[in-house]
Every structure is written in C-alpha cells, then in structure tokens.
C-alpha cells in the first residue's frame, strides 16, 4: 500500500524519527527566526484559567450561575477548563495510551496514512502542513474525521489493535460534551439554547492526535506555531504542560494540567457567530528536552460546506456586521494555499470599518 500523499516517502522525515536518531541539533528547517522563538530566560507565567464545574449545568436552580461563569470566561480569556464533565478518567487515559501506542509504531506503518492532502479524512503528517511550511514544527500528528463515527471509524488505524475502541469511546464522549458546551455558550450570548442545533448535529468533528517528541534544542523551535482554531469549540486533553496562550498584553501564559479536567477553546466560528463579542484566542505549543508530550484535540465545527456568519440577533446599529460569511471548506482552502504562521484565517474575514 502506497502512502496517500504526493510527498515521496523517501523525503519524509518525522519529528519522532529525528528523536529516535538522537540528532544532537535541531535541523535547519525547524529553526525559527529569533523573534519567533520561545524565550527560555523569561519566567514561566501560569495562565489563571477559570475552572468550571459542569455538574450544575443539569440543576435548574444552579444553571444560570454556571452560564454566567461561562460568559465571563468566554469574554475574558476564550479558554477555560471544565471538571465534572462525565467523561471518566479511565476513558481519557485510554485515549492517551492509544495515542502513545500509535506514535510508537514503526514509521513504515504510520506512513501508510501519510498525506499532504489536507482534505483527506484520515492522514498522518508532521509540522502543521509539511508541504507549505517554511519552518517546520516539532510535531507529528494523525488527523481523523470522527462524526458520524459510523462513517469514519473503519478508516482509522487498525494498529495498534485497541486504537479504534479506545479512541472511538473518547471521541463519542467528547462529542456529547461539545453539544452541552455549545448550548451553554449560545445561552451565554443571549441566544436560545438550541440555536443552530440542527447545524451542530450535522457538523463535523475532527480529532487531531499530536505527539511532540523530546527536542534537543527546544529554545529554537515550537511544537505548534501561534494560531487560533477554525471551528466552534475545541476540547483538548493533554498529557503534560506545553500549551501556551497569548494574553491581551501579548505575554505567553502556560496552561496548567489539572487531572481529570479538559480544556475548552473558542474557535473562529464562535468569534464570527458572536459578531466579535467573544474572541478566538491565539495559542502555541512549546517542546521539551526531556520528555515527549501527547495531546488530543477534538475540533468541532459546522459541516464542510455550510456557510455561517454573525448571528442576526447579535447585529444592530451599535454592533454592525463585522465578519464575512465563511465555511470549514474556506478554511481548508486557506491553509492549503498559505503559510498560516504568517497570518490568521479569521483576519481575512473581518470587515473594514467605514471611515
């Protein structure tokens, strides 16, 4: 079986392969310009993210309090952590174990899923977009469509043998959580709880499973360049620290790992839908000299060709339409043709104020 992409398997080198080769230096293609490198001498500032207990969402007498907490978190940071989300710790651990087992497979096995085509529903790769990136990221990944799971799971890796069961159970659970959170975010905007319910039900779920291997010179590179997510909500599970968010003063803040908690990130679709009341947040991933890190990002968005724009209920004279309509496919076309480290997709959607 030949790899799916156009890149020759002979020219493909993953970040994990370099680690296994024990390269003493980061190859030139991974070295960032000095102004874009992480600063190892700066203090590691922790992000004081809200931690929201979701158990009260199901209690009518407490729901409004939780909705207010979510509103505040969305307005102030666009990032928050959730606990008591009803996904068992064992399900989360099994998913991370499945990720580790996949990335530990021989490179020949993983290469069966390698592709440069960002439209492939299942693809293994490295960096952000190895075909376009001027500077590569110290990251290997597998991306897989996950909703409806019955349509896609047969395409997922058959090795390791438990991968489909473990990752599938987590994918199904995290989608149920996403629906609850989307309802709460809509309610926090003053919209009905079931706003766009049909569109969300028919929408997409893309699981991005990331491996950030130990890096010999972590001060020269990044696991993922600064970016914001394209979808509505991203729910992230991480094995260890490495994720950082940019605050309003352009400082990088490290997101702590809380056992049992999941990270919720607002994506570009929420920024557009809210007409700018909520913002998607720029984040990046640093790497580590001693350990590898795994994360599982479940990215939820509307269907591939479904156009969306600001909610009409959130547009008035004081808040004119601030964004053009767009679809998930528009985003994919953008990253296919652009180096996303040089500019954000959402900036192409912003309407210029009339002066």
From TrEMBL:
> One GO MF term, please?
L-ascorbic acid binding
Superkingdom of source: Eukaryota
Read off the InterPro entries from this record: DIOX_N (IPR026992), IPNS-like_FE2OG_OXY (IPR044861), IPNS-like_sf (IPR027443), Oxoglu/Fe-dep_dioxygenase_dom (IPR005123), Plant_2OG-oxidoreductases (IPR050295)
Identify the GO cellular component terms for this protein. Answer: cytoplasm; nucleus
Q: Does the keyword Transferase apply?
A: no
Entry keywords, A to Z: Cytoplasm, Iron, Metal-binding, Nucleus, Oxidoreductase, Vitamin C
Alphabetical list of PROSITE patterns matching this protein: FE2OG_OXY
First-listed, main subcellular location of the protein, grouped into a coarse class: cytoplasm
Where is the Fe2OG dioxygenase domain positioned along the sequence? 203-302
What subcellular locations does the record give? Cytoplasm; Nucleus
Q: Which SUPFAM superfamilies match?
A: Clavaminate synthase-like
Q: Which family does it belong to?
A: Belongs to the iron/ascorbate-dependent oxidoreductase family.
Q: What does this protein do?
A: Involved in the regulation of shoot development and salicylic acid (SA) homeostasis.
What is the protein name for this chain? Fe2OG dioxygenase domain-containing protein
